[in-house]
Structures are given as C-alpha cells and as structure tokens.
Amino acid sequence: MSSEKVNQKDRNFLAVIGDEDSVTGLLLAGIGHVNQQQKRNFLVVDAKTPLVTIEEQFVEFTKRKDVAIILINQHIAEDIRELIDGHNQAFPTVLEIPSKDHPYDPEKDSVLKRVRRLFGE
Fold first, then answer.
1. What is the DSSP secondary structure assignment for residue 63, as one 8-state letter?
2. Could you tell me the CATH number of the domain that includes residue 16?
3. For the whole model, what pTM was predicted?
4. Cα–Cα distance between 61 and 50 in angstroms, integer?
5. Which of 21, 41, 76, 80 has its CB 3.0 to 4.6 Å from that of 15, i.e. a possible disulfide?
6. How many domains does the chain have?
7. What distance in Å separates the CA atoms of residue 61 and residue 31, rounded to the nearest whole number?
C-alpha cells in the first residue's frame, strides 16, 4: 500500500473557519475535535479577529495530516482569497459555504472557477 493512500485514509476530520453561527452549527453536528497538542479544528471569526489569525489558521489546517476538508464561509474566504487560490492540493479540499448574513455567490467560489477553466469557459 502506498504512503499516499495511507495519508488519505488517515484524514478523518473536517476543519471550519467561519462566523459564530456557522461554527456553532457544525460543532453541534459533531465535527469538533481537539488533538493531543490542544489544537482545535475550528476557528470562530468575528469583526475583531485579525486577518493574520485567519491566514495562520488556514495555513495550519492545510498542513495538518488529519484534515480532509476545510469549510470556510465565503465572505471570510474573500479576505484570504490569495491563500485559497494558491492552495492546489487535493487534500485538504477547501469548500466555501454561505453564512446566515452573507449569501453564497458562485462567481466568487474558487472551486467553481477551476471547473470553468477545465471546461474552457
């Protein structure tokens, strides 16, 4: 068995970067996890959260070997668009989700932009 398959198999968690309502809902659904190093798989972002904190958490989530998917509110993703567009690995996959106060805009979604490029649109 190749090490790549083992790595994929060991990716058991979702990570989330979002507003309080989104993160709370996902935590209530059971995605919350704190590892042995006391690192959480979620970040609650509000108006006082520094951009640097969001960027650092995103980079940390992309480097973790136990995270399969990173969910991020689209309005927060807009703040770190360069980092998201620069992430080109299959794992963890980055998915942009709507929030209660900010509707989803497919024109801004990085995954849909990549799909359009593949189809020459």
1. H
2. 3.40.50.10580
3. 0.83
4. 17
5. 41
6. 1
7. 14
